Amino acid sequence: MSSRERILGRVRRALADVRPDDTPYEQAVLREYLREHGERSVEETVDLLAENLADYRAIVHRCSAGDLPATIAGMLAARGAKTVLVPPGLETAWLAAADVERVPDRAESSARQLDQLDSVVTACAVAVAETGTIVLDGSPDQGRRRITLVPDHHICVVRVPDQVVSSVPQALELLDPARPLTWISGPSATSDIELDRVEGVHGPRTLEVILVG
To answer: Is residue 30 part of a domain?
Structure first.
């Protein structure tokens, strides 16, 4: 008997005298909470996203779709980045103006190899204005979760207004729970008992978000 079978057997025995729940999942949990707090225009929602991203110490940029390649190139140059990790489905035009070595994501790449790269550029699945949160779902233009957790610098592109919602409930309606979701609210950070903040502990030290209108 494998460990898996042994554990599942214990679960079945523990649940043997538990009556089945006939209440459908949709009715089991009350969902009468507000789906968003207040009414905002599209412009106000995007402004709130930018404000909350900055409050979490993310660096926010705004540009048009035509200016995106130049914007990314300028950000990479300002940081002195020479190598950029690229998800397989990222639009090639986004890095067309950047003078960098494009490193494709490979399954065999180790965490140490990823850590040696200067930056990573990705798209996103959705952005939540009320919480200043970027959500990645592992789509081809975002890549695997680890490529956005190991490199020290992450540039994330958000399409405005298509990918911006007001609240978490609205975001959940657009996301597939079966996908590997990564929720990002600012750069990785923690603090000790004296509240000394340390960034870059379990993710990028620097998060730059481009709102592309």
So the answer is: no
Beta bridge partners of 199: 189
Residue 63's pLDDT is 97
pLDDT, tens only, 12-41: 999 888 777 777 777 777 777 778 888 899
Residues 6+ apart with CB under 8 A from 65: 212, 213
Beta-sheet strand order (sheet of 182-184): 164-165, 126-128, 133-136, 182-184
> Which residues span the domain enclosing 87?
40-212
User: Global pTM?
Assistant: 0.81
Q: What's the half-sphere exposure (Cβ side, CA atoms, 13 Å) at 136?
A: 24
Sheet holding 101-104, edge to edge: 59-63, 206-212, 153-159, 119-122, 83-86, 101-104
The number of angstroms, rounded, from the C-alpha of 189 to the middle of its chain's C-alpha atoms is: 15
pLDDT tens-place string over residues 119-132: 999 999 999 999 99
The number of folded domains in the chain is 1
For residue 180, say if its preceding peptide bond is cis, omega within 30 degrees of 0: no
Q: How far apart are CA 140 and CA 120, in angstroms?
A: 14
Closest among 121, 88, 81 to 105, alpha carbons compared: 88
Task: Write the CATH number for 90.
Answer: 3.40.50.10420
Cα 71 from Cα 62, distance rounded (Å): 9
What Å distances lie between residue 52 and 56, 59, 74, 112, 191, CA to CA?
A: 6, 11, 24, 32, 20
